[in-house]
Amino acid sequence: MDFSLTEEQRLVQEMVREFAEKEIAPYVDQWERECLFPRAIFSKLGELGLLGMTIDPEYGGTKSDYLSFILALEELSRVSAAVALTVSVHVSLFMRAIQEYGHEEQKRKYLPKAARGEILGAFSLSEPGAGSDAANLQTKARREGDVYIINGIKSWVTTGSEAEALILFAVTSGEKEKKRISAFVVDRNLPGFQVLKLEEKMGFHSSPTAQIAFEDCRLPATNLLGEEGRGLAIALRLLDGSRIGIAAQAVGLAQRALELGVRYAKEREAFGQKISSFEAIQFMLADAATLIEASRLLTYRAAALVDLNFPHSKEAAMAKLFATEAANKVAYLALQIHGGYGYCRDYPIERLYREARVTTIYEGTSEIQRLVIARQLMREAEGTIC
Q1: Residue 267 known to be catalytic
Q2: What is the full DSSP assignment across 315-342?
Q3: Which of 70, 157, 173, 182 is the most exposed place for a label (fewest CB within 10 A)?
């Protein structure tokens, strides 16, 4: 088994690392402190071709392998998890939805601009009463002639206040367990589309999370994405790939936390010597490094399965589960190494500690990942048990 990266993949890794250090790192603390959404960064990422890495060239993309995109997300997250999250949602959920399920007119309308960073896309599945229970949506999309009338409230929409368009999931027919959910592409400028509020979160202050209301929002029927009633299947398939991106985000965040821990341990003195010489500190660093490497390998393997066009639902869930839980542990260890200073906002490890926490929640909690893994194991066992 070859674990080495190709020359092209290494070049992507180096390019994104250099860009992130130069264009993002100097401003991250200010963006987070002042809750500033760095819109201009995404135009620059578009110019580099990073936003079109999963899109065919005929639609303005720079189609590459999925592992290269995952490497890019990891490097972005090492500097700013908030920027990496926006890129992940924009590419893995918004653009990929249109690339795989959109008709020709939708692809021509949205993908070239999205690949250039001229527009940003969001993904709207969750509702106030439907998070992990994605099938329990209440937002309705009623067909009337050549339009759908949309009514309902959606929550936890990453960049929902900034995106020009989003992928929306709503009930088109049926009740309770017989609901038929459909997917749509919705432009933000439609009458009846309203951002109700922005969530005040523990972290990710430069990545706004919105609650959105739809009140008699008239959406052209041509904005239906894929077949009517296939929305939930579309959402779950998209999340399989996107969860690998969240795993990469967790790996990048954890890598940065480890680097901060090592640096502080080599600089800080206690009892007349550098604390890096203490066995207790060395064990913390060793544990953190091992968790990161295991997370990275799980993540890269899941991405490789996407490139091979192999089933990857279980492997994506494993990568997301392990990497995000590991990121929380690594951030904890790195903060512990900083001692009291780690609890102060003067040190970036404090921000990373807060940011790591949500990675085990969004795009499927750790508990949901365990369910996905276990159910897939049961399906596999059905074919082997006589």
Answers
A1: no
A2: HHHHHHHHHHHHHHHHHHHHHHHHGGGG
A3: 173
∠ CA 233-318-312, rounded to 5°: 45
Global confidence as pTM = 0.94
Strands 180-187, 140-144: pairing is unpaired
Distance (Å, whole) CA 143 – CA 152: 15
Other C-beta atoms within 10 Å of 293: how many?
Answer: 13
Q: Take residue 11 and report the two structure tokens written for it.
A: 């070049």
**Measured CA distances, 96 to 56, 114, 220, 372 (Å):** 11, 11, 21, 22
Place of tokens 């739809």: 214
Residue 149: partners with Cβ closer than 8 Å, 6 or more residues away = 141, 142, 216, 217, 218, 219
Taking the C-alpha atoms of residue 156 and residue 143, their distance in angstroms, rounded to an integer, is 26
Q: Are strands 147-158 and 165-173 parallel, antiparallel or unpaired?
A: unpaired
pLDDT in tens, 234-265: 999 999 999 999 999 999 999 999 999 999 99
Q: Which of 58, 104, 363, 382 is catalytic?
A: 363
Which tokens is 296 given?
A: 């990275």
**What are the tens digits of pLDDT across the range 100-133?**
999 999 999 999 999 999 999 999 999 998 878 8
d(CA 204, CA 212) in angstroms, rounded, equals 19
Q: Hey, where are the domains in the chain?
A: 7-120, 123-227, 232-382
Backbone angles phi, psi at 176, to 5 degrees: 50, -125
Tell which CATH architecture fits domain 7-120.
Orthogonal Bundle (1.10)
Task: Return the CATH superfamily for domain 232-382.
Answer: Butyryl-CoA Dehydrogenase, subunit A, domain 3 (1.20.140.10)
